[in-house]
Every structure is written in C-alpha cells, then in structure tokens.
User: Which sequence fits this backbone?
C-alpha cells in the first residue's frame, strides 16, 4: 500500500517515536502493542525539489517485489541538489522506529551527496495501520518476539538498540543481563552500546 502524506501527517509521524517507558513491558503487554511483521505501508513524503515524475517513481518502487519485502521501520533519503536518481539516495530498514531509520538514512545520504543542501526524507516504510504505541520493534524483532520470546514460561527478557536496530532475547536466570549483554555486543559492531531491556517476564 502506498500513501502520500500531508504536512500535518508528516508532523504527526515525526513525533510518534516512543520506544518504551522506564520499566520494561511484560510479554502480554508488548503483544497488544506490536504490529504484524508481514504487512507494511510505503509512505511518500513530497519535498519541494521532487517532481511529479519523482513521486510516480516512488510509487512504482513501492510496488516492486524488492521494496514490498523491505522491513519496517524504514526510511529513504535523497539529496535536494542531486535528486532521486543519484547514488546519494539511501534506504534504511528494519529499525525499531521511524526516527531511527530516518537518522541513519539522512546520515548515509549526507555522506554521499558531495555538497549542496542537506538530504531530506522522501519516503518511509511503516507497519500497516500504523499508530502511536509506547513500544515499537522492527519487523525482525517482532518476528523473534512472537516465535521465540512468547514460547515457554519462566524468566525471559528482550533488549533492543534504539540506534542500530539490534536486539537480543534471553531466557532463564539472569535473562535481563544476558539479553542486554548480547544486544550491546551486536550493536557495538555498528558503533553503539545503547541497548535497553524493553520486555521482561519473571
């Protein structure tokens, strides 16, 4: 599905970025907040430098098999000076929030643009029927939550890196510490150690 956002909707999307409260959610609470990992929407964000052809191109991209398989949360950034058909146009996916995907896409795009105005967002990939939730997980993390975390009883925890999109699940004694350590080890390979436990059951 493809949407074209109005200015008001873009603002609303930009502030819908809560990952979790101070205390971790239980598995039961998390289950109610997460979206299907298989259903996505491709949201076009018109910018002043974009032509009608650019918008049509993005809509065509949304229907391509490779883009239908892109995992949320995702973002596409482009250089206002270079346009869409340029190596600076960058897509990032499988993050835990739109903001995180946007930050990475903008960072990579700016590194490739070779001067001129800074890159801007031109599209997002979000879950189908997306709405603000206190907890947001990437499509891959949501799948792992459903297939691994929810299986079995006892102590368990899930940690995520808001910056990189990494995550880890651990079970048994010391699950929270184990999940946190595994997540940070993975995230450290991308230059971050910001993992936090967002789901926990004892």
Assistant:
């Amino acid at each position: 599905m493809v949407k074209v956002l109005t200015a008001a909707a873009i603002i609303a999307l930009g502030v819908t970025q809560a990952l979790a409260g101070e205390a971790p959610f239980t598995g039961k609470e998390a289950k109610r907040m997460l979206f299907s990992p298989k259903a996505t929407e491709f949201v076009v964000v018109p910018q002043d430098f974009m032509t009608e052809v650019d918008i049509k191109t993005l809509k065509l991209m949304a229907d391509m098999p490779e883009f239908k398989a892109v995992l949320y949360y995702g973002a596409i950034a482009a250089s206002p000076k270079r346009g869409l058909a340029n190596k600076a146009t960058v897509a990032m996916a499988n993050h835990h929030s739109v903001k995180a995907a946007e930050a990475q896409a903008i960072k990579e795009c700016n590194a490739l643009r070779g001067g001129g105005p800074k890159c801007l967002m031109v599209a997002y990939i979000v879950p189908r029927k997306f709405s603000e939730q206190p907890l947001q997980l990437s499509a891959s993390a949501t799948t792992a939550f459903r297939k691994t975390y929810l299986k079995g009883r006892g102590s368990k925890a899930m940690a995520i890196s808001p910056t990189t999109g990494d995550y880890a699940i651990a079970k048994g004694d010391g699950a929270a510490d184990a999940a946190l350590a595994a997540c940070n080890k993975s995230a450290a390979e991308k230059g971050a150690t910001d993992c936090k436990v967002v789901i926990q059951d004892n």
